[in-house]
Amino acid sequence: MVPEALTKKPDVFPFKTTLSLDPLVKFWKDVPQGDEKCLVTGFAKRLLEEVDNTPDLLGPIHDPSIFEKYPELVYALMTPVFPPASWEIDCSAAIPPFQLNSFYSTHVFDRMRFFANGAVTSKINVSEDELRLGMIIRAYAAVLKVFYDIDLLFDYPVISTVQDPETGLDRYYQWRLNPRFVEVRSSTRPRELTADDRKELLEHILDPSVVTRILPAEGFEFYGFTIFNAVDVTDQEALSSLRLDLIGRDTLLSETGFIGLQQKLRILFRRPDIVLGLASLPRDVSQLMQSGHKIGDSFVLDDACTRECSHVRGSVYERALSGKDPVIIDDLEKLPHSTQLSVG
User: Fold this and answer.
1) Which residues, including other chains, have CB under 8 Å from residue 140's CB and lie 6 or more apart?
2) CB-based burial label for 21 (10 Å; 0-12, 13-18, 19+)
3) Residue 120 phi/psi, 5° resolution?
4) Cα–chain-centroid distance for residue 89?
5) SS3 assignment for 61-72
6) Strand, helix or coil for residue 94
7) Is the pLDDT of residue 334 over 90?
8) Do 205 and 154 form a contact (C-beta atoms < 8 A)?
C-alpha cells in the first residue's frame, strides 16, 4: 500500500541538475602518478592531455550530442564505468542526474530501452508520479547526507517488465542508480537545521510539502552524471508471484488462474512451450478414474488414460502414485523401460 503522503505528488523535480563529465575527469586525475612506465599512469596522463585540448567535454554540458564529435575520447574516458567486456552483458547507461535520458549506453540497454527522452518506455511497477516522488526523496537523502551528516536509508525499488525477443516471455529488471560521479553542490550557504527541523524532516520525509517547507530545494545542484544499471530479477519476481498465487485457492480452481500459473512457470524456466498439468488423486489408486480431479493438461487423467488405464502399470506415473516421493524425469526419450503412456 502506498502511504497517504505519496498522493501529494509534486509536478516537477525541484532541484537543479547539470550534466558534466568533470567528476569523471577528476577520477582520472586521482590515478596515482607513479612510474611513467606504468601502463595505467601513462594512459591516464595521455587521456588527460587529450581532455585538456577538448574544452567541449569540460564544464556543464547542455547538449549531449557533443559527445558524438569525440567518440574515441569519450569511450576512453568511460572505460572505468563501462568496461569493454561488459558491453554485451550489462544493461547499463549514463544519464544526467535524476533525468530519464541516456547519453551513453551498452548494447544491451539499447535493445531494452527502459526510457528515452525523459519518459518511461517500459512497463514499471509504479506510476510516473510515484517514480518522480521517489527521485525527489532520493535527492533530499543525498543533500541531508552531504550537508547535514544525516544518513537516510531510503529504497524505492523500480522494476521494469520487458519482453524477451527470443522467447516472447516477460522478463523483470530492477533499476539501480549509482551516483558515484555526481557532486551535490550548493550555491549558497545551506540553511541551518534545528533539532526540531531534523525531527520533523525524518518523520515526514515522504511528504514533499513538509520537506520543501523546511529545506527548500533552491540553491542545491546535482552536477555530473548517474550510472544506471538494470539487474535481471526475473527468477525472484516469478517465484514471489508463484508463491502468492499458490496461497489463494482460486488459482488452482479456475481456468484463468491456472493458465496464469502456467505462464509464470514458463517465465521462470524460460521455456515458452511448457504445458502444466495437475491432478488431485484419491488415496486408493483403483478409484483414480472415479474420483480423481483433472486440472489443466494432466497426462495421468487424459482421454487416452481413460480408455487404456492399463498403461499406468509399469509407467513413471505408477511410481508417482504408489510412492510419496517426487519422481523427476529429465528426458523421457532416455527413460529406460518406457511405456506407451510415459512417452505420450
Assistant:
1) 152, 205, 211, 215
2) buried
3) -75, 130
4) 14
5) CCCHHHHHHCHH
6) strand
7) no
8) yes
The 10 Å CB-count burial string (b at 16+, else e) for 174-191 is: bbeeebebbbbeeeeeee
DSSP label of 226: E
Q: Which of 16-25, 93-102, 112-121 has the lowest mean pLDDT?
A: 112-121
CA distances from 166 to 270, 272, 277 (A): 10, 10, 25
Euclidean distance between CA atoms 7 and 207, whole angstroms = 9
Burial class (CB in 10 A: 0-12, 13-18, 19+), 125: middle
- Determine the distance from the C-alpha atom of residue 207 to the mean position of all C-alpha atoms in its chain, rounded to a whole number: 26
β strands within 206-323, DSSP E: 220-232, 277-280, 293-296
For 246, the enclosing helix (H) or strand (E) is: helix 234-247
Is residue 77 over pLDDT 70? Answer: yes
CA 65 vs. chain centroid, Å, equals 27
Overall size of the chain counted in residues: 344
Q: Is 231 helix (H, G, I), strand (E, B) or coil?
A: strand
- Cβ count near 289 (within 10 Å): 13
- pLDDT per residue as tens digits for the range 144-153: 999 999 998 8
Of 135-139, 235-239, 256-260, 331-335, where does mean pLDDT reach its minimum?
Answer: 331-335
Q: How many Cα neighbours within 13 Å face the side chain of 193?
A: 21
d(CA 196, CA 165): 54
- 103 Cβ contact list (under 8 Å, min separation 6): 19, 64, 67, 94, 95, 96, 225
- Report the alpha-carbon distance of residue 328 to residue 269 in Å, rounded: 15
What's the whole-model pTM score?
Answer: 0.79
